[in-house]
Amino acid sequence: MSSALVNVPPRARRGEVIEIKTLISHPMETGYRRNQLGARIPRDIIRLFVCTYNGTEVFRAELHPAIAANPFLVFSTVATESGTIAFQWTGDNGLSATESAAIVVD
Amino acid sequence: MSGHGARLLGASALTLLAWTASAGEIPPAERRSGYDFMSRETRAMQDDDTVNPGMLGVLEGGTLWARKTGTAGRACADCHGDGRASMKGVAARYPAFDAALKRPVNLEQRINLCRTERQQAPALAYESRELLALTAFVARQSRGVPIDVAVDARTKPFIDNGRAAFYRRQGQLNLACSQCHDENWGKRLAGNAIPQAHPTGYPVYRLEWQSLGSLQRRLRNCLVGIRAESYEYGAPELVELELFLMWRARGMTIETPAVRP
User: Fold this and answer.
1) Rounded to whole angstroms, how far apart are CA atoms A12 and A105?
2) What does the pLDDT look like over B192-235, one tens digit per residue?
3) Which chain B residues have a beta carbon less than 8 Å from that of A24?
4) A85 phi/psi in degrees, rounded to 5
5) Same domain, B218 and B97
6) pLDDT in tens, B55-69
7) B107 — phi, psi (to 5°)?
8) Chain CA centroid to CA B165, Å
9) B153 C-beta neighbours (distance < 10 Å), count
10) Cα radius of gyration (chain A)
């Protein structure tokens, strides 16, 4: 169960550079740690994050072990048209979480 | 020779006097939240709810608040309504005296009492994700509310026990809580600022833990740090210490979910 917080400005002027912030709850277990019995704790990380703006990919990030739990990503894009900005996180153990936000451009 | 001895005695008496003066409690005007000792970046993380990772716990707690559970098939919301309104100021009054148990209980214990008695559900484990989330959701509603634990004939003995524990030297390092947090706050311990130990933002998102954690987790960490044997989660000694710390921070405002380094 993953919950995500995304912050997209609700309105922007055409051509304006907007900042997008995303935060998702995830343990980002590295796969290198061992439990008290010495058994390896299996890796459980988010491997890929993709952001699309009305279907067009505007940002992509590959994640690796050693990235802290609850990854927080901030990036920017240019506000071109009104529509939907969608976010997808995929990773180990069949993780696929999605979130979206609407933006009005004028 | 005797003059020299008297001078020595005078000097040590002076030292003793200075020590007792500095060993007193922090005056109200000088009390500072752990927030004030943090870097600019960590403060920014706490201040923005869309950046603060503790808000993920609050979000999850809000979901759990509305979910029916236990054999009674009741959700928190079925009795308490909208938690955002009904839980305002509650965390600022905890630990609070429980008449049936005849002792103070903290917020986590209160939530578990509600679960076992009203919802007929099993108690949640300390530091479990669900219990931290529910506690964070409840405590979040008190953000900005001044801490105001009850001080009366019923709670007084427990506050006194907590105070005694705070000033008692313990562990292999033979340290009392007060030696760091009353007498040496603002200085550095292995590169980290020593805060005054006011529990204003629990459960906190601690960067070192990479998760939310309760005040008891923090207290147990400190006890291990001074090489003392720590109490079990939920132990009366820890609740008494929590109560004393909340009394000591009376009037300071709740920041939950706080971020700490």
Assistant:
1) 5
2) 999 999 999 999 999 999 999 999 999 999 999 999 999 999 99
3) 56
4) -105, 120
5) no
6) 999 999 999 999 999
7) -65, -40
8) 14
9) 6
10) 16
* Mean pLDDT over each residue of chain A, to the nearest integer: 94
> Looking at the domain assignment, is residue B24 inside a domain?
no
- Look at residues B95, B99, B113 and name the one whose alpha carbon lies nearest to residue B202: B95
Contact in structure between B142 and B254 (CB atoms under 8 Å): yes
Q: ipTM of this predicted complex? A: 0.82
Q: Give me the domain span that covers residue B112.
A: 54-140
Q: What span, in angstroms and rounded, lies between the C-alpha atoms of B158 and B245?
A: 12
In tens, the pLDDT along B168-189 reads 999 999 999 999 999 999 999 9
Q: What is the CATH number of the domain that holds A49?
A: 2.60.40.10
A23 → chain B, closest CA residue: B51
The answer to whether the CB atoms of A25 and B53 lie below 8 A apart is: yes
CA distance B27 to B23: 12
| Phi-psi group of A66: left, alpha or beta (phi > 0 → left; psi -120 to 50 → alpha; rest → beta) | left
- Asked if residue B256 and residue B127 are part of one domain, the reply reads no
Q: Which amino acid is at B194?
A: I
Can you read off the two tokens belonging to residue B115?
């679960």
Torsion of CA B45, B48, B53, B57, to 10 degrees: 150
What pLDDT does residue B190 have?
87
Q: Round to whole Å and give the CA distance between A25 and B28.
A: 38
Chain A CB contacts of B60 under 8 Å are 1, 3, 25
**What distance lies between CA B35 and its chain's CA centroid?**
14
Q: A31 lies in which domain range?
A: 4-105
Min Cα distance B209 → chain A (Å) is: 9
**pLDDT reported for residue B163:** 96
